[in-house]
Design goal:
The complex is a heterodimer of chains A (115) and B (112). Chain A is mainly beta and 115 residues long. Helix content of chain A is 0%, strand content 48%. Chain A has no helices and 11 strands. Chain B has 112 residues and is mainly β. The chains are: A mainly beta (115), B mainly beta (112).
Chain lengths: 115, 112
Amino acid sequence: NAGVTQTPKFQVLKTGQSMTLQCAQDMNHEYMSWYRQDPGMGLRLIHYSVGAGITDQGEVPNGYNVSRSTTEDFPLRLLSAAPSQTSVYFCASSPGPLLPTDTQYFGPGTRLTVL
Amino acid sequence: RKEVEQDPGPFNVPEGATVAFNCTYSNSASQSFFWYRQDCRKEPKLLMSVYSSGNEDGRFTAQLNRASQYISLLIRDSKLSDSATYLCVVNPRRGGYQKVTFGTGTKLQVIP
């Protein structure tokens, strides 16, 4: 099993550009999520999905879109990149809604810089 | 008050020492608690869930104090490989997902 994979690992964008961060998991998990991690702050939930075709907003959704057409894939789209979106982005998946028995698996992260 | 608070450290401890971290949470209805470990520039990985009665996994012991609203992580016989940042994670609602909150992490440095 590859677990959770993310591409690209690094990306530099100019303000106003758009791009898609890819995320895939091969564990047949229903729950997937996108977080951003900034210095001095905990991971913050951007968007999440509880199954194919179902997505919802997290704490910091503005400027990002998601879709979940398959169980495996959960791409994150930046609509018009801004310097405030410079961050490390983690995709994660879990078999359930983070009950004590649910392990959340994270991808290796995408380091995004917006100039 | 932040929803989840951790002392950022760093905690510098010698090999073989015992070290403990606390994490306080503000939502008394919180139901699920976890400790994750994050190595520098890597993804977080689950270290252990925290159960009401406390639980142990080798050198690691996690405890929950609902009255005072904190969880703790105790590491015995520290190894160099324990050097990392330890994140506490709180899920405030049984079956919920939207409000899962990560602490900012406590950095541990184990020195030879």
